[in-house]
Write a structure and sequence with these properties.
The chain contains 13 helices and 19 strands. With about 525 residues, it is α/β, with parallel strands linked by helices. Helix 10 runs antiparallel to helix 11 and helix 12 packs parallel to helix 13.
Length: about 525
């Protein structure tokens, strides 16, 4: 039995649709657009603006070793220079349970919550109001469920585990997320909380107002009122800031390797994956034995045990990915969301008022972090996004070598900070800039030994290159020389017909049991056709 269970795609979609009463009669009668958000603090057209990015952060307080708190303190110093905070997913570890929102989200980010500075403990996870727009997407951990036997075991031993002197503990209680229930109640405008259509209509009158999304597209949309009502409309949504269209996606519903997708495994590949599963079981047992020995040692900072816990979680995640590759699903693809993205990007390109486009979602299509770059879900995300972008390109008459269809893509999931650029992929994702921001609190990982160049065919050095890693922060060194560079991003978007994104990484580096906090060297991203000056 898996410690954490990743629900099926169809179950995730249906559960989230039920919570927002997707396209219900009352929603259709009112003409509501359930996927667009209006930020009332958006800067005037043509102005510079900045935003913060964090991801994979949701860990609790562990002894004196608190990466998420270290990052949150640095973020607080940058908040006055930001228009919003973007979160790339995995808001609460380990299984997205409401039991851990207080410790793993509300307390670390209390300065971003209305009333949080004075009494964060009084804020319920489903009653949060932000004093700076906080715009998340769900990560895989935000959807995880906990099997009943594990829930009973963890719940009954919770108090004992909290007092057991090992300096660190699994962030697991009686239950998991209930298929994203906690995430939805914490951040989304869940219409199922109302008793009848009359109450919903009154809610629409209070918090929705007509808004022109693109020429010819006007509908009542949810308004995000900082300090008053701070909800996102759905699990995926769009908004505009400074003439830039942002598209927030739920990649948990298009990351599954599909049967008949043209990537069928050979018998040799299947045997290799099965052997990898056996190796992972043995590796997991070795780690557990090391942890058992460490129970009798003093590790008050929790560093060594925290790292081992992260290694165990990483193994489970790799196992889930391999099992999905060995047993691909038929028809488990969120076609409605992908069509929404295609339609939205086409409309954005046909809107002369828009000067750029940014996508953000959890699973990265391109990454060189050691555990993610070759996974089946990484390839599934890449293929599905390429299909959408190819259709967009065809619709607007784009060709490879023109200005990229998307100016910037921001992801999490890989526990690092990374900047990559794709080369000529032959698809709509050619020459695109990618940022991975998943190192904001949980168990950092290394860059792969295979190097900074990604190729068409994995593990074949003579295969054509399709992407290059330019910047990487994560775990480096070993023993006493081991360094863990946790991170978040401050991104300034400049004016101009083609915007520039000035990216400044902020690092909280843990080395030899002490912290060093500093801004790293900034770099500038601008979406240009190859060879353009």
């Amino acid at each position: 039995m898996q410690f954490a269970v990743d629900p099926a795609v169809t179950k995730k979609i249906q559960a989230m649709q039920r919570r927002v009463r997707w396209q219900s009669t009352v929603v259709q009668e009112q003409g509501i657009n359930q996927t667009h958000l209006v930020l009332d603090n958006a800067p005037a057209s043509g102005e510079d603006f900045s935003f913060l990015v964090i991801g994979d952060s949701g860990t609790g307080k562990q002894g004196r070793y608190d990466p998420q708190y270290a990052i949150a303190e640095q973020m607080q110093a940058q908040r006055d220079n930001a228009s919003f905070v973007m979160h790339t997913g995995d808001v609460v570890y380990l299984v997205g349970s409401r039991e851990y929102y207080q410790d793993n989200f509300i307390r670390p980010y209390r300065h971003f919550l209305q009333g949080g500075e004075n009494n964060a403990q009084a804020i319920a996870y489903d009653k949060m109001v932000f004093n700076l727009p906080f715009l998340p997407v769900p990560g895989n951990h935000d959807y995880y469920d906990l099997p009943l036997p594990y829930g009973l075991l963890m719940g009954l031993t919770q108090k004992v585990r909290q007092w057991f002197p090992i300096g660190v503990d699994w962030d697991v209680g009686w239950h998991g997320s209930f298929t994203g229930e906690a995430y939805a109640r914490a951040f989304m405008d869940c219409l199922d909380r109302f008793n009848n259509d009359r109450e919903i209509t009154k809610h629409f009158q209070q918090h929705y107002a007509p808004h022109t999304i693109h020429p010819g597209q006007t509908a009542p949309c949810l308004h995000y009122k900082t300090g008053e009502f701070t909800r996102i409309p759905n699990r995926y949504y769009s908004f505009r800031m400074g003439d830039i269209d942002f598209f927030a996606l739920d990649s948990n519903t298009f990351n599954v390797p599909l049967a008949g997708s043209g990537q069928a495994l050979t018998s040799e590949q299947r045997d290799q994956l099965k052997q990898k599963l056996e190796d992972l079981v043995a590796e997991k047992q070795t780690i557990r034995e090391s942890m058992d020995k460490m129970r009798f040692e003093l590790d008050r900072d929790g560093e060594d045990l925290e790292e081992m816990r992260g290694e165990l979680e990483q193994i489970d995640e790799i196992r889930r990915d391999i099992e999905k590759q060995l047993n691909p699903h038929t028809g488990e693809l969120d076609g409605v969301q992908l069509k929404w993205l295609e339609t939205g990007l086409i409309a954005s390109w046909n809107d002369e008022a828009v000067r750029g486009r940014v996508l953000f979602f959890h699973h990265p299509p391109y990454v060189t972090e050691t555990s993610k770059w070759y996974q089946g879900q990484t390839h599934a995300i890449r293929d599905n996004l390429r299909t959408v972008l190819d259709k967009v390109g065809f619709s607007i008459g784009w060709k490879v070598g023109d200005r990229p269809l998307v100016d910037l893509v921001i992801n999490g999931h890989a526990h690092c900070l990374e900047h990559l650029e794709t080369l000529n992929t032959g698809h709509g994702d050619a020459y695109t800039n990618w940022l991975v921001c998943g190192g904001s609190g949980y168990s950092l990982r290394r860059q792969r030994q295979e190097g900074a160049t990604l190729r068409v065919v994995d593990f074949q050095p003579d295969s054509p290159a399709i992407a290059e890693s330019k910047v990487f922060f994560g775990k480096t060194g070993s023993g006493r020389k081991k360094s863990r560079a946790y991170s978040f991003l401050h991104i300034n978007v400049t004016t101009g017909k083609i915007p520039k994104f000035v990216v400044r990484p902020f690092i909280s580096e843990r080395f030899q049991r002490s912290w060093q906090h500093y801004p790293a060297q900034p770099f500038t991203i601008q979406s240009r056709a190859p060879g353009a000056e």
